[in-house]
Design goal:
There is one protein chain. With 329 residues, the protein is α/β, with parallel strands linked by helices. The protein has helices at 11-22, 55-60, 72-84, 107-110, 126-142, 160-171, 201-213, 248-256, 275-278, 309-325, and strands at residues 2-6, 29-33, 42-45, 48-51, 65-68, 88-91, 103-104, 120-122, 144-153, 220-227, 234-242, 261-263, 284-291, 298-305. The protein folds into two domains: 2-124 and 312-325, Rossmann fold; 127-307, Dihydrodipicolinate Reductase, domain 2 (2-Layer Sandwich). Helix content is 33%, strand content 23%. It is globular, with a radius of gyration of 20 Å.
C-alpha cells in the first residue's frame, strides 16, 4: 500500500502522520509531499526519516492513496492529476465538498456509499464532522426540522500563523497577524471570509455540508461561527427542532451508544465537554443535553471535538481504512 501525504509539513499533515502511526495503517511505501520550498526537508515517521518530495514526483509515483491537506487551490490543481494516475484521493480542503459528483464522507455515517469509482473523496469541514456525528442518530429517530448552531472555534483551525499570533499576544510579543484583530482576550465572530449574504464561508459550510452527508435537504441549518483564544478543539452550541418528540433519557442513551460519540453530561458533578479534555482524542463529546423549554420538540446540546484529529486527520485516515478494508483501492 503506497500512501502519499500531501501537505506533510503543515499542521494537519503533522497530525495525519501521527494518526497513521497510532492506528498502524498498512503502509508499505510512504511519500511525504509538500510545496517546492519544503522539498528535501526531512520528516520522521515510525522511527525513520523521510525526505519531502514535490507534487509532480508524487503523482508520477502513482500511490494507491493520496491524502491531501494542502489547501483548496492545490487540491483543485492536483487532485485530478492524482486521480488520472489511478490514485484514490482523500481531500481535506473545501474544494470538492459540494461538488455533486464527489462523495462527502464521515465513515460512521455514510462510508457505505463509497465505490472503486470514487477517485476523489471529500473530507468534511471540521465543525461539520463533530456536528453530524451527534445529529445523525437523532435525525434518524426524530427527524430534524431546523438546527441553530453557534461555534466556538480554536485558532488551530486557522493554522500555524494563528496559533503563533495567540502565543505572541499572550507573551506580549508583537508579530505577524493571522486575524484583523487581536485574538487573545477576545472573540472574533469571523471564521473564514464573508460572502455576499453576510455569512462567512465557515457558516455556509455548516449550513450545507450536513445535508449532503445525511443525504437529506428537508431540514435547515443556520450558523454563527466564532473564533476564540483556545489553542485546539472546537465547541458548538446546538439547538435542534425535531418533527417528533423525544425523551431526554432516550437521547442520552442513543448518543452514548453511537460509535465515536462520548456523552459527558452530569450537572451535579460539573461534567460537560471542554476542549481541554478533547485534546488529542478522536471522539466527539456531547453534553449539556436539555430540552428547550421555549419550544416543543426542541433539544439543546454542547458538542466538542479535537478539530485536527476527528475534524481532519482521523476522519481522513478512517476513510482510508474503510477503502482498504473493503478492497476499494
Amino acid at each position: 500500500m503506497k500512501v502519499a501525504v500531501v501537505g506533510a509539513t503543515g499542521m494537519v499533515g503533522e497530525v495525519m502522520l501521527k494518526v497513521l502511526a497510532e492506528r498502524n495503517f498498512p503502509i508499505t511505501e510512504l511519500l511525504l509531499v509538500a510545496s517546492e520550498r519544503s522539498v528535501g526537508k526531512k520528516l520522521p515517521y515510525k522511527g525513520k526519516e523521510y525526505s519531502v518530495i514535490g507534487l509532480a514526483d508524487a503523482v508520477a509515483a502513482k500511490p494507491d492513496i493520496a491524502i491531501l491537506s494542502a489547501g483548496g487551490d492545490t487540491s483543485v490543481e492536483w487532485a485530478p492529476k492524482f486521480a488520472d494516475a489511478g490514485t484514490t484521493v482523500i481531500d481535506n480542503s473545501s474544494a470538492w465538498r459540494m461538488d455533486p459528483t464527489k462523495k462527502l464522507v464521515v465513515p460512521e455515517i455514510n462510508a457505505k456509499e463509497l465505490t472503486k469509482d470514487d477517485k476523489i473523496i471529500a473530507n468534511p469541514n471540521c465543525s461539520t464532522i463533530q456536528l453530524v456525528m451527534a445529529l445523525a442518530p437523532l435525525h434518524e429517530k426524530y427527524k430534524m426540522k431546523r438546527v441553530v448552531i453557534s461555534t466556538y472555534q480554536s485558532v488551530s483551525g486557522t493554522g500555524v500563523k494563528a496559533v503563533q499570533q495567540l502565543e505572541n499576544e499572550i507573551a506580549g510579543i508583537k508579530g505577524e497577524m493571522a486575524y484583523p484583530y487581536p485574538i487573545s482576550r477576545n472573540a472574533l465572530p469571523h471564521c473564514d471570509v464573508f460572502t455576499e449574504n453576510g455569512y462567512t464561508k465557515e457558516e455556509m459550510k455548516l449550513a450545507r455540508e450536513p445535508q449532503k452527508i445525511l443525504d437529506d435537504r428537508t431540514f435547515s441549518i443556520t450558523a454563527t461561527a466564532v473564533r476564540i483564544p483556545t489553542a485546539g478543539g472546537h465547541s458548538e452550541s446546538v439547538n435542534v427542532e425535531f418533527y417528533d418528540d423525544f425523551e431526554l433519557a432516550d437521547v442520552r442513551k442513543m448518543l452514548s451508544e453511537t460509535p465515536g460519540v462520548v456523552v459527558q453530561d452530569n450537572p451535579d458533578t460539573n461534567t460537560y465537554p471542554m476542549p481541554i479534555y478533547a485534546h488529542d482524542k478522536d471522539d466527539v463529546f456531547v453534553g449539556r443535553i436539555r430540552r428547550d423549554e421555549t419550544q416543543s420538540n426542541t433539544l439543546n446540546m454542547w458538542i466538542v471535538s479535537d478539530n485536527l484529529r476527528k475534524g481532519a486527520a482521523t476522519n481522513a485516515v478512517q476513510i482510508a481504512e474503510y477503502l482498504v478494508a473493503h478492497n476499494l483501492v
